[in-house]
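Regression report. Comparing outputs from two consecutive submissions.

Submission 1:
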Amino acid sequence: MKKVFLLALLIVAPLLATAQFAPWKAGAIVSQQAVSSYGVKKCFAATPIPDDVWARMQGKSYAAGCPIPRTELRYVRLLHVDAEGNTRLGEMICNKAIAKKVAGIFRKLYENKYPIECVRLIDDFDANDEKSMTANNTSCFCYRPVNGTTKLSNHAKGLAVDINPLYNPCVRTKNGKQTVEPAAGEPYADRNKDFTYKLKRGDLAHSLFMKAGFKWGGDWQSLKDWQHFEKP
């Protein structure tokens, strides 16, 4: 009887673990046991955009008139660890030119427990950049101009990734006046302070993106976009 029970456990346990990943729901907490049973490699995948995800994007991140073809974009699944140590499911849309590199970067961040609070499609925030950043949501693709201009952002091409944006805001100073995006990120504009989710030069996220050939907004002179990495 004991052998039968153990055999049943060996069969059922992986099925229960797999159930935590199907459907893939960004933000959901999963156990380490479930990750091991499911397979870490399967949790970091860059694939063509599934139909259900494509439908979620319409009229939001994939705005009317967007010239970027679906075939140029990829759906990236990933795991990330938040500041409380929870392992969470994440998802992101990237340009196919960087998708595999991005998946690899996030796998290394996950393996080293680099804290990232939230990785969801910006469509969950109605493709509103301010809402997404205020929720500290790490994201990539969104067809939109640079805030305050008519110039397309590299996010519009899926070639830019913003990491923990609430705590690593975009800071502009003009005529002595400072503007912080998101507005709720103003307490974190002072980079001399230490706080959770702070991204800084030489840390793991910065090092991995720079090694992969990205440029960092923290190096810019006209403004400081501490969250932002983009592929030229």
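Submission 2:
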Amino acid sequence: MYNKNVNIKVKKRFFEVMKKTIVCAILAVAGVFSLHGANSISEQSPEFFIKSFSALTVGYDKSMSEKTIKAAVIDSYFRELVANGKIIRWNKSSFPLKVYVQDTEDVPGYYREIVMSAYQSWERASEGFVRFEIVESPDGADIKNYFKDISDANTPIGTQAFSVNGNTFKDSTVVFRKKDEKNHNLDSKQLYSSALQEIGYSLGLVAKSPSIYDVMYPIGTKFNTEITPRDLKTLTLLYSVVPDITNTPISEEEKAQLFTASEILATLNVPVDDTTNPDEVVANDIATRLALAEQYRKRAEYDKAAEEYQAVAQMKDDRRSKSEVYYEVAVMYLDAEEFDKAKSCAEIACATDMNDKTEILSALIDYYMKRSNSAVEQLDAILAQNPYNKYAYRLLCKIYRDKHQENLLNATIRKYGRTAGEIEE
């Protein structure tokens, strides 16, 4: 009897693994076009990587439907990018970009390693949409990274600037502080987060995302250490637009396949922006409701934002999509430290659809409320039941990083890294 039960469990486990493998393969193929999948290049077979690279190099173009472009814009911060000024980006033919990272003995050795790993993360997350080549000399480098003494305590960890002349630029220069404002060595997590953002600037993402989870959200949060689908969609949209400023001219043939910024924004047809009084807008569709919710959220009118999000949830067709909206509202209230409202929204999200994302909400609330031990207990239990839950895995790793518990962090990576996915070191 015992052997029979064991055999049944083995078969059940086998079919679960096969099911997840098939689903992951389908999502990976879909991710070629939508950039939802940000898997490591090293995990792809050579044949699949070639196909992925070819598709992603094209990005969004005029052969795609207006609906596809509209969906990408809604789930990105392209509007903030356009509102920030002229479009500046590299000619795609310039990739791989040559990157110089200063090797100097007066900073800890991990500084250079962390900055280089951030470049690898952008390349890996974009599945080769952007590529880099590390060079040992700043001469001829496209992006130059230096570590310098900065006396002004208000200067951020990293700063970036293009060398612009008219409608062209030559290169991008990134400068990192050698010490923090207290004259201590930079924390590895802070430096990594800053490096990801400065690379984003160097690629042309010269805008701040309104989402706390995105890399291009202002430095200083504990969540923006992973490149998100929103970051990637914004990047891809950026490289699907004719730039105002670039390093080398775009050919007329390529321009014919690219959009203008106004053409992309026209797909939204949503009468809401930073100059709009959202109280005067009549919303009858999901896109307008989401735009209103974003505006109210920016203005810290969280209850009004929640009303718009709730309207969006009611307009969604399936339980999973509805639960994702309520999840977002819960996170919004957590950011605002309105914990009771966050708990209520979390309960609705879980009751609507219990999935890998909503399952961690209770632990996420404890994390925000600085009850790390409780959060860890819940996340351990979740992962014991479902070692494929990447949200639980990432949050658990964040907690151990925040508490500088390297042994527990490494043990978690060894235990769940192969099932729940990779995190950036």
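Expected: both submissions complete independently.
Actual: both completed, but the second showed a warning that disappeared on reload.
Relevant detail on submission 2: Residues 2-34 form the longest helix (33 residues).
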